[in-house]
Amino acid sequence: MKKRGRGKAEPGSDRQEAFDFQARATGLTPKPPFDPKQLFHLAARGLYLGTSSWKYRGWEGMIYKGGYDSEAQFQRASLREYTSYFPCVGVDFTYFAWPIPDMMAYLVESTPENFRLCPKVTKRITLSSFPNLPAYGKWAGKKNPDFLNADLFASQFLGPIGKLKGRLGAIVFEFSGPEEEELAALTEFFRVIPRDYPYAVEIRNPALVRPDFYRRLNEAKVSPAFSLWTRMPPIEEQLRAFREGGGAAPGIPLVGLGLLSEGQAYEEAVRLFQPYREVRAVNEAGRAGLAQVGQAALAEGRKAYLLVNNRLEGSAPHTAGAIAGLLR
């Protein structure tokens, strides 16, 4: 894939090198609900604030210029335009299927060097059992034989992901648990996999929000991913257990994920919030919790990656702007 030209930022500019040539060419300038300079100021200090994905047509006129001739054109242009306003993004499609080298090359070619990508590990590695749904065919409702398969992870995931080196923020493991009996296998998995990548663990088992679990992550040199999700306690409580467990070793980044408000179902949030153009349900405590993760990282001289989802409040760009305001 041929690389396109990239305009350089002016000397002394706080704004990252940005792909804004599409907006100049059409005369249409999106109006984001925040000042991008705030986000790039934070990124210059090691705190990267972005969204969990980027391919939302509802953001046209806000993040994207609009007026695309086809969905394919939007798919090709959207990430380049996104980088004009955000310093990082989550790569969630790698959760559903193994990463492909050509797609990883596209991600690199579509982003400036100081942009950061946070891919999710494919669920083939992180699901201990497959949901009992028709989409999983003969495996529906059964144990996953490749759960925490270190060799498969190294070859099928890290192999293609290696193309993102230089732009990797954190590789996020999303676990539906883990359950208590799986912790020993989790520890062994992180002991044997290649360690020259930044890893973060997101849990969805509230029973593990306790000091000894975060101590286990620290010993494995793995970042915690503090999350807002339907069954998880507030981030303030997660941070408290993390600190009581000894925090993290120097150089370990922190990750914060704003996914769903406590008690809310994913399907309900999709129904209420689409097309994700505005905030429909303000979550002040959630915003404050994510800001606390960022503040803790800044105070300790760590990097941090904060990613927010449309399903948290209704519009991830608005939520990101509100959190940037709290961190200003």
Characteristics of this structure?
8 strands; two-stranded parallel ribbon; single chain; 6-stranded parallel beta sheet; 328 residues; TIM Barrel; disordered N terminus
Secondary-structure map:
Blueprint: H1 21-26, H2 36-44, E1 47-51, H3 71-82, E2 88-91, H4 101-109, E3 116-119, H5 123-126, H6 150-161, E4 171-174, H7 183-192, E5 199-202, H8 211-219, E6 223-228, H9 235-244, E7 254-258, H10 266-273, H11 284-299, E8 304-308, H12 310-313, H13 316-327
Parallel strand pairs: 1-8, 2-3, 4-5, 5-6, 6-7, 7-8
Give a brief description.
The chain has 328 residues and is an alpha/beta fold. It is 37% helix and 11% strand. The chain has helices at residues 21-26, 36-44, 71-82, 101-109, 123-126, 150-161, 183-192, 211-219, 235-244, 266-273, 284-299, 310-313, 316-327, and strands at residues 47-51, 88-91, 116-119, 171-174, 199-202, 223-228, 254-258, 304-308.
How would you describe what is shown here?
- This protein has helices at 21-26, 36-44, 71-82, 101-109, 123-126, 150-161, 183-192, 211-219, 235-244, 266-273, 284-299, 310-313, 316-327, and strands spanning 47-51, 88-91, 116-119, 171-174, 199-202, 223-228, 254-258, 304-308.
- It is α/β, with parallel strands linked by helices.
- The protein has one domain (28-327): TIM Barrel (Alpha-Beta Barrel).
- The strands form 2 sheets. Strands 1-8-7-6-5-4 form a 6-stranded parallel β-sheet. Strands 2-3 form a two-stranded parallel ribbon.
- α8 (211-219) packs across α9 and α11 crosses α13 (316-327).
- It is globular and about 55 Å long.
- The model is unreliable at 1-27 (pLDDT under 50).
